[in-house]
Amino acid sequence: MLETGRLAHCKILVIFFVVLIYSEYPAQVYPDERVDSLLRAGIRQIVNQDYKFAEKIFTKLNKEYSQLPLGKIYLAANKIAEAYDYAQDFDEEYILKNLELAKEQSQELVDKDDTNIWYHYLYALAEGYSSYYEAIQGSWFTSLSTGINSISEFEKILDEDRNFYEAYIAIGTFEYWKSRKLEFMDWLPFANDTKNIGIDRLIVAIDSSSYNSHLAINSLIWIYIDQKKYEEARKVAEKSLIEFPLSRTFKWGLARAYEENNPSKAIRLYLDILHSYPETLRENYKNEITLKHIIAQQYAKLGDTEKAIKYCDEILSMKNIPKKSLDKLSGRLERVKALKTELSK
């Protein structure tokens, strides 16, 4: 099921936060107007999935403000987003180089001026992206350690300024999933239920964050799905798609929310996502197989066995899948075979 993919990815965010521009209420902005402008423009292009344009903007930011780590952080973030969206290998050397330089530069800024809350934020941001990258690469122990450092720094920021809404995103996500994963240990003193606290902070971040609210939005969508609050998830996703109608990220969450009560609508959305990838990625086996499998499942729900089997057959007839991709997809391919067998009875 989809929970093993997108929802699992969201659960990684217990040690991370997210990315976008969506502000209804005044929020803090970086004090340099030019930096603020470049940040907003670049992040918007990430959300619009124009990764090449985003890279140009963040390269300009890094060149014009080489003394700040922001350009490096978002150059890495852009590469991570692109590879995840396209289901491609990560450019590890590029990502790690930029994040390590960003962390070093952030720490130097903090050492020079410990009272500057933005410098602390930049350090927390660099640590957070490092943690996120380590998690999706499977380095869980290292990721957890780095993630705790990031969350701790974000909490210090809120101790200084409760209205620094960028910090709410990481902490809100962390509070929800920490509590969710420790539900079976609710008898322990440190396992108190903070899920609602996490949700409240994410809602505040969506309305008030200047730069990084898109992952607050995405995180909240998948949290609602985890809680089986599909109508709430749908409302958040649809509101976000008004401003970013082509966003595969928000569209994927919306499709999952529709699976429970409107599989036909979910199918249309998943087909939109499938057909939205660039022509150069038409043979992207991971995305194609994942989406066609989900579509087959939705047709099975509707009782349309013929179409469900058709999509299973399309998947199982694919040739020349690279071994590396085949290894990653082996579990899903087995589930496709099982689905076809069940439908063929």
Q: Identify the overall geometry.
A: globular
Helical content class: over 70%
Helix count equals 16
Q: Measured on Cα atoms, how large is the radius of gyration?
A: 21 Å
The stretches of 5 or more residues where confidence is low (pLDDT under 50) are 11-26, 183-191
Protein structure class: mainly alpha
Largest sheet: none
Would you report the number of β strands?
A: 0
Gist of the model:
Helix content is 72%, strand content 0%.
Description:
The protein is mostly helical. 72% of the residues lie in helices and 0% in strands. It is built from 16 helices and no strands. It has helices at residues 6-11, 33-47, 51-64, 70-86, 92-112, 117-136, 140-160, 166-181, 195-208, 213-226, 230-243, 248-258, 263-276, 285-302, 305-316, 323-343. The chain is globular, with a radius of gyration of 21 Å. The two termini are 21 Å apart.
Q: Any key phrases for this structure?
A:
16 helices, 345 residues, 72% helix, mainly alpha, single chain
